[in-house]
Amino acid sequence: MKDRVLALAGLLQSLKIVRQIANNGEAESRPLEAVIESVFRIDADSTEAVYGGTANLWPGLRLLVEQIDGGSGRDPALTRMAATVLHLERRVSRNRALMAAIGRGIDDIARQRSHWGPTHPTVLSRLGELYASTISQVRPRVLVQGNPTYLGEPTVVAEIRAVLLAAVRAAVLWRQVGGSYWDLFLRRRAMAETARSLLR
């Protein structure tokens, strides 16, 4: 359960960052760095290692608790985006040629990430281009709403796509650790409690 909760937290954290960038043109650096780094950690030893430790997923864990518990903190639009990404990931993962192309692209960009860091504009731009040339070609498309001023800037659009790639990475991880739609319906209480214990 812990691994599934961390993967889902990674997904929600990524999507929250997408919306922050779309609305404000920027996002908090540490949560952003954690999700972008996850794209390059394909062979990590654990789910925690994908994100560099549980502490880097605290924003996502808090979001998970809010989404499950309901009340004023719940964000239905975020839930819809997460469901779209989970559906999209299943379609992408079935396409071996597409997955191979994504893998090659990430390997290529990894050299620049090692040199400049995960959130350097060039790295984010190249990840955004990779998303646009691969995952964006698959339906359903993830619709992002925000401030038209920022959404009209190519650098902002590229950053949003880079973080959407991280969201799909989290969805892949969710499936790899045994996550399924049944968890979202039947194990919500257990997931919320696990998230709370990780936050403590």
Describe the overall structure.
This protein is mostly helical. The chain has one domain: HflD-like (YcfC-like). Helix 1 runs antiparallel to helix 9, helix 2 packs across helix 9 and helix 7 packs across helix 9. The chain is globular, with a radius of gyration of 16 Å.
Structural class: mainly alpha
Q: Mean of the pLDDT scores?
A: 95
Shape: globular
CATH class: Mainly Alpha
Number of strands: 0
Number of domains: 1
What are its keywords?
YcfC-like; 0% strand; 11 helices; cell membrane; HflD; globular; 200 residues; single chain; mainly alpha; cytoplasm
What is this structure's SSE topology?
Layout: H1 2-24, H2 29-40, H3 47-50, H4 58-69, H5 76-93, H6 96-116, H7 121-133, H8 148-151, H9 154-176, H10 181-186, H11 188-199
Helix pairs in contact: 1-4, 1-5, 1-9, 1-11, 2-9, 4-11, 5-9, 6-7, 7-9
Pfam family, one: DUF489
Membrane topology: Peripheral membrane protein
GO cellular component, one term: plasma membrane
